[in-house]
């Protein structure tokens, strides 16, 4: 049970982290273009 909770937490953090990195990358890309 603990392993499932840990796996779920890591998955959520990974997804949120990926979205944040993608957002930062797009913002930096927009700055470079303009």
The protein's oligomeric status is single chain
As a percent range, the share of strand residues is under 5%
Q: Which class best fits the helix and strand makeup?
A: mainly alpha
Radius of gyration: 15 Å
Number of strands: 0
User: If helices are DSSP runs of H or I spanning 4 or more residues, what is the number of helices?
Assistant: 1
The first-to-last residue Cα distance is 50 Å
Describe the protein's architecture and organization.
The chain is mainly alpha-helical. 94% of the residues lie in helices and 0% in strands. It has one helix and no strands. The longest helix has 32 residues, at 2-33. The model has no long low-confidence stretch (mean pLDDT 91). The chain crosses the membrane at residues 6-25. Keywords: Membrane, Transmembrane, Transmembrane helix.
Outline the secondary-structure elements.
Blueprint: H1 2-33
Summarize the structure.
Keywords: Membrane, Transmembrane, Transmembrane helix. The protein is an all-alpha fold. The chain has one helix at residues 2-33.
Features:
single chain, 34 residues, mainly alpha, 1 helix, transmembrane helix, membrane
